[in-house]
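We treat protein structure as text, and this decision shapes the records that our systems exchange. The tokens are whole numbers drawn from a learned vocabulary of local backbone shapes. Below, we set out a record of this kind in full and without editing:
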Amino acid sequence: MPKWLGSASVMSAAVMGLDVRPVSVEVSLVKGTPIIQIVGLAQSAVREGRERIRAAAAQLGLHVPGLRITVSLAPADLPKTGAALDLPIMLGILCAKGDLPQDALEGTLAVGELGLDGSLRSIRGGLPIALFAAANPGVERLLLPAANLREASAAEGIALGGSDSLTDILAALNGDVPLRGPAALLPAAGRTDRTETGGRPRNGGFDLSAVKGQPVAKRALEIAAAGGHNLLLSGCPGSGKTSLARCLPGLLPALDVREAVDVTAIHSVAGLLADGSGLQRVRPFRAPHHSISEAGLIGGGSRPRPGEASLAHHGVLFLDELPEFGRRTLEALRQPIEEGQVRIVRAAGSACFPAEFTLVAAMNPCPCGFLGVPGRCRCPEETVRRYRRRVSGPLLDRIDMLVDVPAVRWEQLADPAPGETSAVVRARVSRARARAARRHGTTNARILPARLEEACRLERVGRSLLRKAVTHLGLTARGYHRTLRVSRTIADLDGQARVSEDHVAEAIRFRGP
């Protein structure tokens, strides 16, 4: 019977979607064929860690005993993916061998990928793991790669330690040197941290003052920014639809701390954070190509990961050339638009990703794009109808404002006078958002139907206008609620506590002809 020579247990964690599950890394050493065997639904990237561990140990002069090493990842029925378990497995082997005292790992949760030279590389999900560790009373300290320290520092109530090297981790656990903390990685005073903004200006380089003409579309853009409302821009090529949409991020206020944590966690799980980056303060702007798949847009995969809808959480999802997207792909957006989240269910498990985004879409009025321009469009009427039917009625019903963007006239193009800058409009948007937040704690686009009447306080004439809109324009119940929300936002932009008939009339005009 094999002789039991040593054992150890190390706390770690696995990321499933945005959820984090505890993983206990248990190591036992027995006499037998020299092999490292990893059990517990370890997928290929975890099993390949055996070779990374052996190479790193040899590079650093650490001795991996020629014994049968069994690594059990508990719970056994939880799938484990990725390379974040390399570090706890290595620590468990060294602890079971006696090179590390077991009490050095008490209350410590460890994650990290090992390089062949003994370096520690960044992992996905550093912030969600730190939030999990902070909420777990049994965890006192989190060990992770130095590249993940800044994002993890957003989690309060947990001691963080990290390094670029396994050697430093081992020295700290043996009490020889202290580990580096997040403060050591903060940028020098006066230096701009480009990683938090993705190295781009806050508005992506598009300022509203550079867009000539289009007063109606600019007004709609301001309303969309103030209330988080969905917007569809329709017009001929070159009228400025894309430029207008790309101005929207510059009209939005910076993320608050709670929103920044949410956005950073999603981008961390998706592997989109640059090494050493901290909280993302700029609202995301995602503009996928129309060839994107359904899984790419809303998320999915055997190991569920967030799609573009979730990567745009608290920001803007821009769909240019809307009718060119696949029908199934667009229809998959209906639930996220309505509920603000994406649920992905697979045989191996499920995941839920937040997806509270402002949808901005752009389309041409016909296949050639020049419908209504004398002498330019020769599209048959049936072709135009078929083109527009690519966007379903249920999806259009979820869009708050439908705006026609006409061709810009020469007089407007040649006018040297600059329009309002994005900064000026952003100030009005911020005040309107603050009013909405004080009133019901969210943007107007997210007001629940049960609270709409209380939030809007419609006057008699305004209610009469809405009744006519429902009767003569055929507004659905959803369209009625969305019109109410838009009118509430217009009132907030005007600084009014009550929604007047003018506010309702403007909101109805944005529902289309």
User: Anything to note?
Assistant: The longest strand covers residues 4-16.
